[in-house]
Every structure is written in C-alpha cells, then in structure tokens.
Fold this sequence. Notes:
CATH superfamily of the domain at 221-382: Aspartate/ornithine carbamoyltransferase
CATH class of the domain at 221-382: Alpha Beta
Bound molecules: N-carbamoyl-L-aspartate
Order of helices and strands: HHHHHHHEEHEHEHEHEHEHEEHEHHHE
Amino acid sequence: MAVSQQVFLRDAMRRLNLTRDVFAARIGVKRRALDTWLLPEGSQEFRGMPEVVQRFVTEIVENETLLEKYAQNSQRGPLRDRIAIHGKHQLISVDQFTRESVEELVRIADMMQPIARRQKVSRVLEGAVLGNLFFEASTRTRVSFGAAFCRLGGSVCDTTGFTFSSMAKGESIYDTSRVMSGYVDAMVIRHPEQGSVAEFAAATNIPVVNGGDGAGEHPSQALLDLYTILTEFSRLGKLLDGAHIAITGDLKYGRTVHSLMKMLALYKGLTFTLISPPGLEMPADIIEQVALRGNHVIEQSNSMTSIKGADVIYATRVQKERFSDEQLEGYSADFQINKALLDQYGKEDVIIMHPLPRDSRDDAHDLSIDLNHDPRLAIFRQADNGIPVRMAIFAVLLGVENLVQHSMRDVTWSPPSHIGPEDAVFHGMY
Ligand code: NCD
C-alpha cells in the first residue's frame, strides 16, 4: 500500500460516502475491528487490517460499478418499509431481504448489544404487548423472542401447544389471528405446517414474525446465524464473501438451513458443501434459487470427510417430528461431528454452529459434547446472539430503531462477567 492504512480506509469511506458503522457492515467486518485499523500506525491499539480486506476494498473503489453498488444511496426509506411483505411490517421469509437491508439489521443488532449484555436498559417499547403463539415445541426461540421484547420495555403474553389454545376446539388460523390482533401489538408464531404463518399474517395488519413454519422457513434464526458468522469472522479476520460453508444433517426437513442458505446467498462467491444422509438432501427449489443468484459453488455429499477446508460447519438435528412413514431415530455414528473428525479434517479456525437443540442421547449421533471445551464451538455464542438480533427485528418492525441509542440507561444490578463455565474468552460480556 502506497499510503498509510488510515488514509487508505478514510479515502474509501469518503468515496463511498459511508459512515464508519455503515462501511464496516458493508464490507462485512465489525465496527470495533475497523476502529483499530483506522488508528495511527504505532498507537497501542492499532491493528493491521487483513490482506483480504485490503484487496476487497481496493476492488470496490477501483471499479465504477462496484463503487456505485456499495455507495450510500440517499433515496432509502425506513428499513421496515424496504423489507415489508404485501405492504405490511411482517417477517415471514428471508426472501424479503437484500444484502443491504440485512446488513442494516445487523448494525441495529450491534447497537442492541449493551442491552443484550445487561449493561444498559431501554424502555422504547413500553406499553407494547407481544403475543407469543407457539404451536410446536420450543425453548430458545420462544424465550428469546419474549426476553428481547421485554428488554426493550414491552411485555409478553404466551400460548403454547394446541391443547391449551382454542385451535383444539377447531378455531381457524384466520379467526385466531384476527382475535389476537385485538389484544397484542405484535405476534411471533410457530406452527407445524409450512405456509401457516403466512396465513396468520394475511389475516392481520399487525407485525407478525415467523418463528418457524413446519419444514418451511425460520428467518429470525437465519438472521442470528448470519450475525454469528459475521461476528466470528470479524474476530478471525475473515470475510464472508468467498467463504466455504458446510451444512450438515437433515437438510430436507430442517427449516433453519433452508432460510440460512438463501440468506447467505446474498453474499458473493460462496462454496456451499451440503452433507446429508441419503434421502435427507436439501430441497431442489432452494438449491436452484441459490444457484440463480450468481457465482456460488454448490457441492452435495453423503460423507462427513467433505467438511475439509470449510470455514463454517453448520450441523443440524434429525427433524424426527416431521417424518411420517420413514423411521429415523438419529444419524449413524460416521455422521457425527466430534473431536476425532475435526482433528482429522477440520480447519484450525473453523467455526462450528448448530441452531440447537442438539439431541444429546448417545444413539442420536448429533453434534458431540466432546467439543464443549473447544473454542471453535460457537453454539452458545450463536444462541446468545438470538437476543440482540430479535431485539433488532422488533425495533425495526415497530419503527423504534432510531430511538434506542438515546433511550439507554445504565443497569442497576450487576451482570455476570461470563455466562457459562465453558465459555471461551471471547464469549459473552466485556
Ligand atoms: C430449530 C427449529 O425449531 O427449527 N430450533 C431453533 O429454533 N433454534 C432446529 C431444531 O428444532 O432442530
């Protein structure tokens, strides 16, 4: 580089007309990392930016088309209008996002971190009530949506399972949705049938979030998974463009991986290695949609040895509840991701993800607990990211994202410095 790193980056931001926050999100790095690269060389906190970032930024500023694409567009309206579906502020599918809008949501999630980490409190949703309607099993999604709403100052009303709802008496989705809308200001819905949450959403004008519709989609999980990958990559000095993502397990019925693969396809030049037992392959329509988006490589495999070279391994559970005729209680032993497999085939800086729950029974051969002390295991950091990301979703859908920053006050209690005993040093709070 002929000029200093600081001059080079400042020049790029000026030419793109981007603030530090937006620039960091646009090139897929954390704001904190960018700040250290922008310090004068020789200062104590200064860090050299990875060569891959320098090449990427050079490529953007030297190419007119890319420059235009990455530059700030002043014509943009509120994010909730840009991701709206049928003119409504609802989140049903990851197809509602562009790379630009998803990165804006990532930035809002970043802004939520002091609240998610219990350093600050906010009351921007004071008086608002969330209806959490879960007609399928859930721990993380239901509780983290509820906690996210509460941490913004709102309150939550829950219903769980069919047994204790009027659906057990034959009530339709239309009636349930219309009635609930008179009681609450936003709804999160999980339901075993694909397409059912869109049906709920069509019957109301209030914000509805898809918390998982059968084997269909799980957009909030994909957003927190993307957020996790960007956060982990930023720590490791990697870019998502050009990365190698291995997705393993029940890719046929796993809705998290359907949403995730489509969302990651918003980036450039990814290699997807899809590893599943025979019969549980990724649906063809999703592969076609991703292939149409451009220069991605998509490989399919039935062997775990194909994790070789991956930057991310995303494991999933057998979705037993969606099997009608076939009986599959778990994976075969050679399908398990464990320490021995990683020692032989895993990169040293690979990150291991799983939407959870993992099936910890011995015969399930789901992601092994023998990796619990391994810092590459990102599953609990990933689950924790559900809070800032779901706070960002609510803030955007209810139109309060610009009020959050100024609404923050210090907490009055002492949060723990680390959440779990196995947490790596870069996990959690600081
Ligand atoms: C997933 C789901 O419900 O789709 N769980 C989650 O929301 N984190 C994955 C699963 O149940 O296996």
